[in-house]
Every structure is written in C-alpha cells, then in structure tokens.
Fold:
Amino acid sequence: MATLYYEKDADQGLIRSRRVAIIGYGSQGHAHALNLRDSGIDVRVGLREGSGSRAKAEAAGLRVTGVAEAAAEADLIMMLLPDTEQAATYEADIAPHLEPGDALFFAHGFNIRFGLINPPDGVDVGMVAPKGPGHLVRRTFEEGGGVPSLIAVSADASGKAMALALSYADALGATRAGVLETTFEEETETDLFGEQVVLCGGVSALIMAAFDTLVEAGYQPESAYFECLHELKLIVDLMYEQGISGMRFSVSDTAEYGDLTRGPRVIDQHVRDEMGRILAEIRDGSFAAEWVAENRAGRPRYKALREEGKRHPIETIGTSLRAMMPFVSAGRQRLEDVSGG
Structure:
C-alpha cells in the first residue's frame, strides 16, 4: 500500500529553519514561491538576466535575484525551470554554491533519473511534485485547501531528507490534501508515460483521428469538432469526480454500451503492445536521450511537428467555434492571468 502523509505528520519547523531559493517563476515557480512566502518561509526567487518574469515576481512582493546569487544565499534550492534548461543552469549557477548540509529539490525527477544532474555528496536531494498545475496549487492554498503531491528522496545525506521534503510540502499546502511517498524513478517514468500515452499524446492523436474519420465520411467538420473534442471535457470531468464507473453511470445507456463494446476495439492489443514499447523507451533512457539530442540540435523535429499540428483542420474549425463560446475564452484568460508566466 502507498504511504500517505497529512498535516499531522509534518514538522514545518524544518522548512522554517531554511533559506529557500525558488529557481524559475513559471506556473509552478510562482505557486511555490507565494505559498511558501505566505507560510512564513524565507524565500527568494532566482531568475536569469533579462527574465520576463522578474516584474511579475517583484509585483507579487517577492525578492528577486540572479540564479547564482539565490543559490549562494540559500541552503534549500528548488529547481522549477523547464527540464531541458535545468542541467546547464545547475552547472553554471548552482553547483558552485552547493555545500554539505544543503538540499537540492525538484518538482519532477527527469534530470536526476537520467543522470543529467549529479549533485555532490553531502547534499540532500529530494522531490516535492504537486499533482496539478501551478495556478491550482496557488488557488487552492488561498482557499485553505491544497493539491495532492508526491515526495521522494534520491540522496539522504542528512538522514532527514524525507522529513524535510514533507515539511516543504506542508508549507506548500499539499499536506492538507495528502502527500504520497514515491521514488524519483517511479515519478519520472509514470509521468512521462502518462503524458505520452494518455494525457497529451494519446488523447490528442485519438481526437484528431476521430475527427478525420467523420470528416472524410462526409460529416460537417463543425459536428465532428463538437462530438470528438468539445464534449470530451464533460466526460473527463465526470471521470475526475466519480471515476470511470461513475462516468458510465452518468451517461446514457446507449453511450455506456458503446463504451463497453467498442472501446476495446479502438484500444486493442496492438495499442497495448505499443504502450509497452513506449514505456520501455522511457525506462531505458531512449526517450530522454532523444529529447536531449533534439534540444541540442535546435528542436527541428519538435518545431516541424508542432507546426504540422497547428495546420490540422480541427484547429481551424476549433478556432472559429470557440469564438462563438465566450465562456471558453474567459476560462483561458483566467488561467493565463494567474499562471505567473
């Protein structure tokens, strides 16, 4: 059984005794910095020269410094830059300032799991990974709640790294909802798998393939958009709130029968076998190596595939239809306003 922790299990005195540097001020960075600040923690934000996020952080009342200065001041550093930027920033601005007794934290295990960052002996290496976007981490904290989080330890030099990670999670508000103990390996591998096979890759490919099937069969693209993309939110919300069985209970009997009998024909053994191959590429480091090489080459394939996706007919028809639904664009604007950039 998984180990879960709550407020009663955390000693916030551990994080209160630390000088914390939040490196980055994007979606997660702004939430971590503000929640910790509001929990009474000594926080500074480390940003690169010319960062567009400096004004946002300063407007929120946070102290902003360069990355190297923040790392030199702090004895707990939380890395919240994009995965592909962390290693270079670590080598240039953070590694020179790490000392025995310091702690290096992450919100995703990618760089530790695949050996892109190798902290020195004597430094605690931990992870606190909220299972939700930064705007939700911040909003639920302000409302008195929290977003469930994962915690893990890769190096326990002090013998108290897990307790420190739990203390950090408590100041973040996560213990109000529940904190699950995991490992860097499990978090990284399951996170990448979920993104590629379901949450992003699987869902987007399924939607576009279904849209194409209907349009090629002569149906209006507008009807195909509503059936294959727009209504997906209703189903996802039902599953989020009630699980798959709860969703099936809430839809019509016709929809449920189609789900039970036709779903396995779409997601068949061939798809399951491909999922297994994708997981193997994640676990053996092939995907990480491919992604690192892609970035070093200037992201040519990434950019080409992104542009190809933007040109898909579902994007054209979706843009015009969403313009007819102001409640959709209003929701998007709210997310942008609170994301922290």
